[in-house]
Design goal:
The chain is α/β, with parallel strands linked by helices. The protein has helices at 15-27, 34-46, 58-68, 86-93, 112-117, 138-148, 200-209, 234-245, 247-265, 298-307, 323-329, 337-345, 357-370; strands at 51-55, 76-79, 97-100, 123-127, 151-152, 154-155, 177-180, 193-197, 288-291, 313-314, 346-349. It has a four-stranded mixed β-sheet with strand order 1-8-7-6, with helices on both faces. A four-stranded parallel β-sheet has the order 3-2-4-5, sandwiched between helices. Helix 2 (34-46) runs parallel beside helix 8. It binds pyridoxal-5'-phosphate.
Length: 373
């Protein structure tokens, strides 16, 4: 008999979410209804932000956040090459240029020193990514932004639950900060996103642009600016509200699974583990990504795990080496050596709140065997 499959991710959904969806269905207010504001207020409170705007995806939120800080044609946005491609694409949407800088080899986040060296007269914004839920060094980026007159937009799509050393939750520092609610995230609405922020004028712009450029006091077919359909439906918001109520438990469960992995994988020689929390920063656990030893054939490792019914995925590829970015901007190997080394060896293992000790042990044992350890 073959072993039970272990997926990469699995959301925690239950009766509360079912009930929440049913209530919206029965109310008939499927979109632009009361759940949107409710979800926004509850989410803002969760990350101690003043304001929040619900949007249809993390990508949509990043796009609107960049527009809200006036990133436009010819501007440069400094960001991490070690991220999901959306954090760079959103600058391209606005005919701005994503300018990459290398990452810190420990936290895997954009290195503030490298970002500072990449600033030019055209730089308009910094877009640090809290990769794998580890807080980016916002105090350093804030100093850089202040000294060079730049705006900050944070990509926290992977970082719900992360906390900065000064106790501020990621998303609560006042800069437009974007969360994502795709099905593998700490909190899911299927698809969805949230922008947290502190400036009412920016929220007004985002709320208008997510709704085809209509101001709150305007009629149904009246539009005074360019907009998009980036709304989040009430059905999704209702799921989000139910998920928020169980968030602390889900985050604690993810941290528990990470602890189990750390113990189970400690003995595998040459295997890199996610950095431990340091200097007071606290990770919001999203994925468990290991760095394979230098001599490993990653494809073979993935294949061997798959043969044992264990899903794993190279995560993440370097953005600047993707064909679109090579062709459009002339990027090539060797530009960001830390990112390239990490990206060539990183592997995401199955990771979800309800993972059992037995499942973690099986992944660790099969990974160790596939590495010949
Ligand atoms: C770092 C990062 N940025 C942006 C996104 C885009 O979010 P979404 O898939 O909700 O558009 C994601 C999630 O997939 C992500 O992980």
């Amino acid at each position: 008999m073959s072993a039970e499959p272990i997926p990469l991710a699995r959301p925690v959904l239950g009766e509360a979410e079912e009930q929440a969806v049913l209530e919206v269905l029965r109310s008939g207010a499927l979109s632009l209804g009361p759940r949107v504001g409710e979800f926004e207020r509850a989410f803002a409170e969760q990350v101690r932000a003043q304001l929040a705007s619900a949007v249809s995806s993390g990508t949509a939120g990043l796009h609107l956040a960049l527009r809200a800080v006036d990133v436009g044609e010819g501007d440069e946005v400094i960001t991490s090459p070690f991220s999901f491609v959306a954090s760079a694409n959103v600058a391209v949407y606005e005919r701005a240029r994503p300018v990459f800088a290398d990452i810190d080899p420990v936290t895997l986040n954009l290195d503030p020193g490298a970002a500072a060296a990449a600033v030019t007269e055209r730089t308009r914004a910094l877009l640090p990514v809290h990769i794998f839920g580890y807080p980016a060094d916002l105090p350093a980026f804030e100093r850089l932004a202040d000294s060079r007159g730049l705006r900050i937009v944070e990509d926290a799509c992977e970082a719900l639950g992360a906390v900065h050393a000064d106790g501020t939750p990621v998303g609560g520092r006042g800069h437009p900060t974007v969360f994502g609610f795709y099905a593998n995230k700490q909190l899911t609405t299927g698809e969805g996103g949230m922008v947290t922020l502190s400036e009412p004028a920016l929220k007004e712009r985002i709320d208008s642009e997510r709704n085809q450029g209509r101001a709150p006091d305007m009629g149904w077919l009246d539009h005074d600016r360019l907009g998009f359909n980036y709304r989040l439906a009430d059905l999704a918001c209702a799921i989000g509200i139910a998920q928020l109520a169980r968030l602390e438990g889900m985050l604690a469960a993810r941290a528990r699974v990470a602890g189990l992995y750390r113990e189970a994988l400690a003995e595998i020689e040459g295997l890199g583990l996610p950095c431990a929390d340091r200097d007071g920063d606290k990770r919001g656990w999203f994925v468990f990504v290991v760095g394979l030893p230098h001599d490993t054939d990653r494809e073979r490792t993935v294949g061997r795990l798959a043969a044992d019914q264990i899903q794993s995925k190279p995560y993440l590829p370097a953005i600047h080496l993707m064909s679109f970015y090579r062709e459009r901007y002339g990027h090539r190997e060797g530009e960001f050596p830390v990112c390239e080394d990490v990206a060539a060896r990183s592997l995401a293992l199955p990771f979800f709140p309800e993972m059992t000790e037995g499942q973690v042990a099986r992944v660790a044992e099969r990974l160790s065997a596939s590495l010949g350890r």
